[in-house]
Sequence to fold (647 residues):
Amino acid sequence: MKFYMMHLMPYADLDLDYDKKYNSAWITLPNSYYDPKKGAKLYNRYLDELEYADQLGFDGICVNEHHQNAYGLMPQPGVMAGALARRTKKVKIAILGRALPLLNNPVTVAEEFAMVDNITEGRFIAGFVRGIGAEYHAWSVNPANSHDRFHEAHDLIIRAWTETGPFKFEGKHYQFEYVNLWPRPYQNDPHPPVWIPSQGSSETIDWASHPDRKYTYLQTFTPVAMLAKYMKMYKEKAEEQGYEATEDQLGWSVPLYVAETDEIARREAREHIENFLNKFLRMPKEMLLPPGYLSLKSMMGVMKAKSSIGMKQTIDDVIDKGMFICGSPETVRSKLEEYQKEIGFGHLLTLLQFGTLPAELTRKNMEIYANEVMPYLRDKTGSAKAAAE
Amino acid sequence: MSHRETMETINGCRTRVMRKGRGEPLLFLHGAAGASAWLPFMETLSEKYDLIVPEHPGFGGSDTPDWLDNIGDLAYFYLDLIDHFDMAQVHLVGTSLGGWIAAEMATRSCSRINTLTLVAPAGIHVKGVEKGDMFMWSPEETTRNLFHNQEIAASVPEPADEEELKVVLKNKLMTAKLGWNPRMHNPDLRKWLHRINVPTLIIWGDDDKLLPPAYGPAYRDLIPNSRLEVFSECGHLPHVEKAGEFTARVSQFIEGAA
Fold:
């Protein structure tokens, strides 16, 4: 198993009373709530944290993309990847955006990703997403065309990376007379690894697991029971299509806090994870799920389910569901070992800073995780694999 | 006698059509909420006209055809529908999204259109006048914001079952496809509204929170032979909220234009 540090780079200095006046930390929250003096400090602190992950022996660091919100300050994640490319030496750098349907010109992402791949000499992982529903409000992009544009932009980027240019691209949403990528990606066998982050979708799994792609499917912030369900679905899809999915095709992204004891971990994390859940993630259903973002069938399911969107969540809720791993090194080790054994993911992305978690606690969390959890799991999962072979 | 309901295949699209009445044909084009039910104003209009109420492709009981990408596609579709029913001329009435379609049809050709009635039509953008964001409103806010009279708003039923909910979601999806961006308008439409050469009545509610009444004069100034009627104490749906006044005004206009 490989270990990654994921960052959302929230605006941790947010006035948490904003919700007395506004119903979301996204789209409609005035940007007068953002103080550039504080924001500048946060950016540099967060970049330092990701660089520290390199020194602590993580396999990779991950940035992502969200627009017009206090939840994550990386509307252009390529800027972060660029800043990290030269300051890190060993880690892979994963950009777990870009939201392809938002793009007017997908070639810009083919170019940007190829540049990061060249500068890092192949330490780059590409992420393609549709983005969450709020992005379609933020960028005024039609959510009803989201699936179509995702597939077309994806096809264009992969062709730009793998075909000798110039070639013509004739799509419904995108048309180009000349596609001829300079630079070509550094990883050219056949192209940089592609990860597909998702909150769980059988359509996405069908597509990602196709033998032509075999992309790494990354389950993000969902209960562990859902994680198990979707990972199983991926493996079954692979089998139906005549191959066995490897661990390398399955990843999990989860917030995690580890401290000296269970009690200390809960006490230190509580306020910050609850801010993450109730303040930073806060948005109404109309913002999260604009029409067309989900298929009619999936949307019916959402409307029927008693949704937890907008409900206050506590640290206990998310720990119980396995959406947040929290405890002593022993607790965290045994949970992760159990889940890994049961579910068989090969990439573990941990969100070690969340909500308002301050710098000192973030560093402590990273250190205990890197020193007391990662080595143990590396041995365990490594030896299990060796024994199986 | 109640209205008839048929499925018509036009341009490969199975289209649900409600129809009742005798007299000159009146084609009614519904707004974003669709036309599932036969409403009181339809009954009144059918006493004087051969009233035809299709559900747009992509809405309610009609198919969603592969060719449907934008409002222009629906404008051509409805010009085809007039051919399909072999009607020499129609009185064309459209509300909101349907008003936008009607305006797009009339800029393309008025040869089969007798009169045009636009009821709080979408379709143009007026700089500096803020519209409501129907995609950000919750279902409860939407109902409240569509009406002036909150007693009527409070009596609007929620989807009764899964089938009705499905129709609501389907209509919303197609409304987004047609009007998400540019938001509920076609930047090119205003350039060609001068081509409309039939008598045109524009109706607006003075308390329209979705498309504010300031849109009325803008539309009126762009269509040569048009006049604007503003209904007082009325929201975005004059045909529902002020059904009596609406049907009387439409008949009067059509008779006056004859």
Notes: The two ends of chain A are 15 Å apart (CA to CA). The interface with chain B takes residues 28, 136-137, 140-145, 284-287, 290-292, 296, 299-300, 303-304 of chain A (CB under 8 Å).
